[in-house]
Amino acid sequence: MIADADDIIFNVCAFLSTLFVLEYGAETFVKHTAVVAMRIGISPVLVALFTAGAEWEELTVVLGALAQKRASLALGNVVGSAISNVLGAFSLGLLFYERGRTIAFDRSARIYSLLLLALTTAVVPVIYDSKPIVWLIAGPVLIATFCVYFGIAAAAILQGVLTAPDSDSESGSTSEETDEEDAATSTTGLLSGQQSAASTRRHSHSLTYHTAYLLFGFFAISLAGYVLSGAAINIVDAVDISDVLFSVVFIALATTLPEKFIAVVSAHLGQPGILVANCAGSNIFLLSLCCGIVMTATEGDLDRGDIELFEVPVLWVSTAAFTLTVWFGARFARWIGAVMLVAYVAFIVLEFTVVHRKN
C-alpha cells in the first residue's frame, strides 16, 4: 500500500509539474511563431488565426495518449475540454465582464459562435457512434473540415468580413522593426498575461533567436504532452478509475486553464470579441482537428471506455447556450454566466456520482 501511495503521489506531482512545462511551451511556441511569421512577411491577422484559439497543448496531449494506446483518454480530453471552454471559461468571462458596461457581441462573434454550433451538431452523433466504418470516414472529413475552416476564415479576415480571433479595434501592427515583438506579443499578449510588460521592451532579436525559441517551445509541448499523458495513465491505473472520467474532468480542467485566464482578462478589459473567438476557436480546433485525428487513428477502437450518453448532450446543449447567448442573451450575460458555472460544477459532480460510478 505504501508503495502504491508513493507511486500515486509521484505521478500526481509529475502530472502537475508537467502541466507548467506544457503551458510554458505553448506560450513560448505561440509568441515566437508570431514574431517569425511577421518577420517573413505573413499577415498579422493570419498569425492571430493560427495562434489564437489553437489548442496546441491539447493536441500534444491527444497525440501522447494515442501514442501510448489510450484512445479513450484522448477522446475524453477533447470532449471534456470543449465542455470546459464553454461552461468554465466562457461563463467566467461573462461573470468578470467590466462592470458598468453592457456586453455587445459583434458580427464576427456571432459568425464564430454559429460555426461552432454547426460543427458541434454534426460531430456529436459521430462521437457517440464509434462504429469503425463511421469513424473511418468521419476522421479524415473532420481533418479536412479544419483545413477548410482555416482557409475560409483566413480569407474572410483578410477581406474584412471577420475580425481576427484576438484582435481588437485598438491594437494594430507596426511597420517599424523595433516594434515587431510588441505587435506579435499583442497577438498573444492575453495568453501570457504580460502584454503591458512586453510593450516596454523595445529591443529586437534576430530571426535565428526567435526560430530557436519557436523550436524549443514546440519541443517542450511535445515532450510535456507525452509525459502528461503517461502520468495520467499511471494515475488512472493506480486508482482504478475510468479513462474517460479522468480526462473529461481532470485533464480538461488542467489544460484549459489558459482559456479561462484569457476569458477573465479579456472580459475585464471589455473585449467580448476576444472572449467569444477564444472559446469558439478553441472548440473548433478540438472538434475538427483533434477529434478527427482520434477517429482516424482508432477507427472506433476505444478499449478503455466510450464517451457516455450524458456527456454528449451536455456538449451540444452548452454549445447551443453559448451561441444563443452571443446572438440574443447579451443583456442577461452575467446571469447566464452564473448559470453556466453552476451547471459545470453540477456536471463534474454527476460525472463522479452517477455517470462513472462503479456498482
From TrEMBL:
Keyword Acyltransferase carried by entry: no
Keyword Glycosyltransferase: no
GO terms under biological process: intracellular calcium ion homeostasis
A GO cellular component annotation in the UniProt record: plasma membrane
Keywords annotated in UniProt: Antiport, Membrane, Transmembrane, Transmembrane helix, Transport
InterPro entries (alphabetical): K/Na/Ca-exchanger, NaCa_Exmemb, NCX_ion-bd_dom_sf
Region named Disordered: 168-197
Protein name (database record): Sodium/calcium exchanger membrane region domain-containing protein
Organism this protein belongs to: Cordyceps confragosa (Lecanicillium lecanii)
